[in-house]
Amino acid sequence: MKKSLIIGLLAACVTWLPGCQSVIDQPEATVETRQSMGVVLSDVGLGDQSFSDAAMRGMGQLRETGEWFVDYRELDETETYKAGFEQLVADGHDVIIGLGFACQEDLEAVAAEHPEQQFALIDAVSTLPNVMSVTFKETEGSALAGAVAGLETESNKIGFIGGVDNELIQKFGTGFELGAKSVNDDVTMLVDYANDFASPEIGRELAEKQIEAGADVLYAAAGLTGVGVLEAAERNGVKAIGVDSDQSMIAPDAVITSMLKQVDLAIVEIANRLENEAFNTHVELGIDQNGVGLAALRRVQWDDEETKQFEAFQKQLMEGTLK
Questions:
Q1: What gap in Å lies between CA 56 and CA 73, rounded to an integer?
Q2: Which residues are in the ABC transporter substrate-binding protein PnrA-like domain (predicted)?
Q3: Residues 315 and 212 in one domain
Q4: Same domain, yes or no, for 160 and 98?
Q5: Do 224 and 309 sit in the same domain of this protein?
Q6: Which residues contact 160 (CB under 8 A, 6 or more apart)?
Q7: CA gyration radius for the chain?
Q8: 188 and 309 belong to one structural domain
Q9: In 156-223, which residue ranges form alpha helices assigned H by DSSP?
Q10: Backbone φ, ψ for residue 193 (5° rounding)
């Protein structure tokens, strides 16, 4: 079934995603000059409280300008990414976006068949001439999260749980460890991979294992699996750091901050560059572009020395002088 967005949808639902339904724009509301965007969401889809939900906020921002019509597809409806891309091509959108590295192969297959259609790929890099690539400097954002963990840990053990062991997810873990060790020489990091982005149960199991091993600050880059990590942290009285979006509402007694990966910004950035950029451009969003960062710190009480340590690390990271 075809889906689209209406004004006010996001304002009504911040954690709305599992229960909200989208509706089709009223034809009489269509403006001839309005541009059109189609998005194939990541594998978990709406309700992941992370990547797809962040993208939806960006789509909502465009829709609210009145200058964009936005439509999307979820994998549980189309069954394959390729089918979703083909449906959006048939609908004649100005630009079609694939969300996440897992859809790259299918996006490129469809893009090769439709060389005049403009595509964009978020979280991976394509070399096709009609595909814009948007990636993030996850290492930078995760390093900030790691610095918080390094200052907050009492056991000097922190834990990282990735959705899968690949180059992209490793960037989260590498940055997390870098940040922690930059402010705390004694810290060690436990690492596990779930091989699943859609299983809170696996996330809880891996978190329990790391907590039993002494980790008292956990960080997951694992989509819906990471929700289980946050829940386990709260249940066991340890601290956690969310990812992609501010995830404090999932486990308010555990989450002390979240590494923000501004997928909503990426959606808007693609729209802004539609007419002015060659469509094989690679856009990389880091701290300087507000593409990554931290949500507000919660229940963190640092003394002056710890605050200076964090601020000095943050300054080095932003200036590119970190060794």
A1: 11
A2: 39-316
A3: yes
A4: no
A5: yes
A6: 172, 173, 176, 177, 189, 190, 191, 192, 218, 219, 220, 221
A7: 20
A8: yes
A9: 167-183, 200-212
A10: -120, 135
Q: Say whether both 29 and 146 belong to one domain.
A: no
Are 91 and 117 contacting, i.e. CB atoms less than 8 angstroms apart?
A: no
Q: Domain check: are 225 and 238 in the same one?
A: yes
H/E stretch holding 134: strand 131-136
Say if 205 falls within a structural domain: yes
Domain count, the chain: 2
What contacts 40, CB < 8 A, 6 or more positions away? 72, 73, 75, 78, 81, 84, 85, 88, 96, 97, 98, 99, 103, 107
d(CA 80, CA 74): 9
Closest CA to 240 of 257, 255, 220, 261: 255
Q: Is 120 left (phi over 0), alpha (psi -120 to 50) or beta?
A: beta
pLDDT higher than threshold 90 for residue 2: no
The whole-angstrom separation of Cα 290 and Cα 140 is: 11
**Measured between alpha carbons, how far is 237 from 151 in angstroms, rounded to an integer?**
17
Can you tell me which residue has the tokens 């189609």? 38
pLDDT per residue as tens digits for the range 194-246: 999 989 999 999 999 999 999 999 999 998 999 999 999 999 999 999 998 89
pTM for the predicted model, two decimal places: 0.83
User: Tell me, what amino acid is at 21?
Assistant: Q
Tokens of 316: 């080095």
The span from the CA of 115 to the CA of 40, in Å, is: 18
Q: How confident is the model at residue 323 (pLDDT cuts 50, 70, 90)?
A: low
> Longest C-alpha distance within the chain, in Å?
63
Cα 212 to chain centroid, rounded: 28
Per the CB < 8 A criterion, the answer to whether 112 and 258 are in contact is no
Full domain range(s) for residue 205: 138-253+292-319
- The answer on pLDDT for 3 being more than 90 is no
In this structure, what token pair is assigned to residue 177? 């460890």
